[in-house]
Amino acid sequence: MKKQTKYLIFFIIALISIIIFCLFMHYITNKSLKYTKSTQFTNQKEIERKSDNDFIKQIIEYNKKIVQWQNQCYIKPYTDYGAWEIKDKFGKESRTIYNQYGKACNYTFIKRFFVDNYYIEGKEICVGSNKFDDYYDTTQPPLQPTPPQYHEFRLDYPSTRISSCDVYNEANQKN
Predict the structure, then answer these.
(1) What residues contact 80, with CB distance under 8 A and at least 6 apart?
(2) What are the TM regions of this chain, as residue ranges (predicted)?
């Protein structure tokens, strides 16, 4: 056999192998995916599911409560407050106050000889006019309702994870 014939046979075998491999990969990747319910959540009596209507009612109730909370807040956004007014509302001691997002903020009172110092989240309260961007109060705002948990689905073939189905986790988010 000639050297050129050996190369031609090797090339044809390699080409056929690549075509077979591509057909196999096409078959695997274009296979229809079947979704099934997760077997661990089959008993409906064990898991109490909230319907969309219940969730909408919770959102409406939450909106009423948050508006009521905002109306009774000591400090409202874009309103002028004097240092004495803030001192009268929060008192002459350091304490924890809350903004509309439920975040605990520090109200710091420092007794001085002539003029006392007041701070909200590290921002000094001036003797003149003070404006804030958030609502602040000594009581926590109402908690937001959590959405209902729907059926979990799994794929029929093994997969480590699907990024679009990951559950949002606030603890994993960077500030």
Answers:
(1) 129, 130, 131
(2) 7-28
**CA distance to 9, 31, 82, per residue, from 23 (Å):** 21, 12, 76
* CA terminus-to-terminus distance, the chain: 71
* Tens-place pLDDT, residues 46-86: 444 546 677 788 888 999 999 999 999 999 998 888 888 88
Tell which residue, 72, 52, 69, has the closest CA to residue 148: 52
Residue pair 138/74 in contact (Cβ under 8 Å)? The answer is yes
DSSP 96: E
This prediction's pTM: 0.53
Instruction: Measure the CA–CA gap between 133 and 101, rounded to whole angstroms.
Output: 12
Quote the CA–CA distance of 112 and 124 in Å, as a whole number.
Answer: 14
What residues of the chain score a pLDDT lower than 70? 1, 31-52, 148-175
Mean pLDDT of the residues in the chain: 76
Alpha-carbon distance 130 to 86, whole Å? Answer: 9
Report d(CA 70, CA 63) in Å as an integer.
Answer: 10
Tokens of 120: 């909200």
